[in-house]
Amino acid sequence: MATTQAPANLILATPLKGGTGRVLPIKSVLPTGDTALAQAQMIFSGIKHLGIRHVLPHDFGTGLIRIDGVVQPSPHDPDATGRWAFFHGTGPLGTPSVVSGRLERKGPFGDDGGTQTSHRALLRAAVAALRFRRRPDEAFHTLVIATADDNLTNCATTLAKTWIETGWKTSKGLLVKNRDMWEALLGEFERYADLGMAVQF
Q: Which helix (H) or strand (E) holds 68?
């Protein structure tokens, strides 16, 4: 497997900015759940020769990136370490092109990153995937972020807007966890929109 270790600056030299919620992704039409990732790859069976990217057969401008995040040995362990990864294509020898990294102890804007959780690792993977390359340069107009975590999809496409309106509080009045990572992700949605690209989950 071809694996690239991403540096802490998230690859792009473009400054990381917190989003305001003016742009949110829409839900993709892909199936959801653990079995969806294999199905998604079958749907995105077209090949775009830029490395090799997974694209819709009838629309080479829509690409697919799969993200994942884990914490070992357990999120309840104070020494737990999170890791994130995204799969964005296939190398020339047919090996998966995977970019991965360790979940930092500090957040994207330099604050304490808090508890290492798989949810935070997934958010970090999404931010890294969106910042890995200038996707418009690859002639994409839409990028689909695929994950087996339905909760992350719902948060990104629906709940994030509500959180902003309520001062980053949940329906139970609790502070939203991983606000810093969510703001970084919202900033990427806005940056993509300014570049003329849509993001879907």
A: strand 59-72
